[in-house]
Amino acid sequence: MTVTWEESGWEQLAPGVGRRRLPGWDCTAGLVLGAEGVLAVDAGSSLAEGARLRAEARELTGRRVTHLALTHPHFDHVLGAPAFADAEVYGAVGLDVALAGRGREELRADAVRWGLDPAAADEAAAALVPPRHAVSGEWTLDLGGGRQALLADVGPGHTAYDLAVLVPGDPEVVFCGDLVEESDEPQAGPDAVPSRWPAALDRLLRLGGEDAVYVPGHGAVVEAAFVRAQRDALAARFGVSE
C-alpha cells in the first residue's frame, strides 16, 4: 500500500478489506484487495464521488479497481459507477433493466429530490451503463493470492435487486447494502418488497454467521445480533409472519 487505510480516510475491517462512510447521505463504499484484483462495493452518488473513490483505491493499492459490485439501484450507491469505466461491473439479476430507460430517469429524479445538484445528476445518469454481469444465486470472484469475494443475490427486500458481498477471512465481512441500516431506521420506498425483506436478512445471517462483521449501507458496522434484531423489527413493522 502507498498509504494506510486511515491516512486515506478508510476504516479497515479485516486484512485487505475496508470501507468508507461517504459525506452527504452517509453511504458506505467498500474495498477488497487481492494480489491480482481490486473489488469496489458501490460507487457513491455522483461522477465526482466515484472518481474520488477510484483515486483513493489507487492510493491504497497502487493499482486500479478491476471489479465493481453494486448492491442495489439507488442513486447514492450507483451514480458514481461511470467513474469505474474499465472495471467489470456486477449486480443482482434484473439490475441492468432497473438502471436503463425509465428506471434511469427515475434514478436521476430521485437524486435531485434528495438534494444532489441537478447538473451532477444529469451528468451521472447520462453516463450510467447497466452492469455487464448479472448475479443469480451466487458468484465467486477470485481476486488473487487466495482472496475471494462471494457475490450473493439475496433479495428482494430493500429493493427488488439486492446484492450482498461476503469476504471470507478473520473476521468474515458482509457488505449488506441497505438491507441493513445502522444510522437510521431502514428506508422502505416504493420499490421495496417488505414481505421478503426479513427472509433476505435471514440469508445474510446464514452467509456471514455469528462472528462476521456486517457492514450496513448507512452507519457503523454491526454484529449478527443487530442484524437479527433489525430482521425481527422489520417483520413486526410489515406484519410478516415467521
From TrEMBL:
Entries under Pfam families matching the protein: Lactamase_B (PF00753)
Organism classification: Bacteria, Bacillati, Actinomycetota, Actinomycetes, Kitasatosporales
InterPro entries assigned: Metallo-B-lactamas, NDM-1-like, RibonucZ/Hydroxyglut_hydro
Domain of life from the UniProt record: Bacteria
Listed name of the protein: MBL fold metallo-hydrolase
Residues covered by the Metallo-beta-lactamase domain: 26-218
